[in-house]
Amino acid sequence: MISTEKEYEATLSRIEELLVKPENIENSELEGFEELNRLSDLVADFEEKILLKDELIKGEESGLSNKSVAEILAEAKRRAQTNLKAVII
User: Fold this and answer.
1) Contact status, residue 52 vs residue 77, Cβ threshold 8 Å
2) 27: Cβ–Cβ under 8 A, 6 or more apart, which residues?
3) CA distance 48 to 59
4) pLDDT per residue over 51-88, tens digit each?
5) What are the residues whose beta carbons fall under 8 Å from the beta carbon of 14, sequence distance 6 or more?
6) Eight-state DSSP code of residue 20
7) Mutual orientation of helices 66-88 and 5-19 as an angle, nearest 10°?
8) How far is residue 23's CA from residue 34's CA, in Å, rounded to a whole number?
9) Hey, is 14 helix, strand or coil?
10) Positive or negative CA dihedral for 59, 69, 66, 41?
């Protein structure tokens, strides 16, 4: 689990290192492939948590209704998933 921004940045750096080798993306039997997938999941979880928290705070501060905040949170989750896909590609 990623708990801090420092851990998040370190994990992103490691993902970048793993992405340099195409076999880490293509060969599911390699340790690098498995590590890349594990780290990607951790990053996605952290980004979702941070984005959701930030969007919730924005919604509360602006006086939005609960329905509007829920819609914002759903969009933040979608963005986090899209960002992760962009990192892997």
Assistant:
1) yes
2) 33
3) 16
4) 777 767 776 677 777 777 778 777 777 777 776 566 55
5) 35, 39
6) T
7) 40
8) 11
9) helix
10) negative
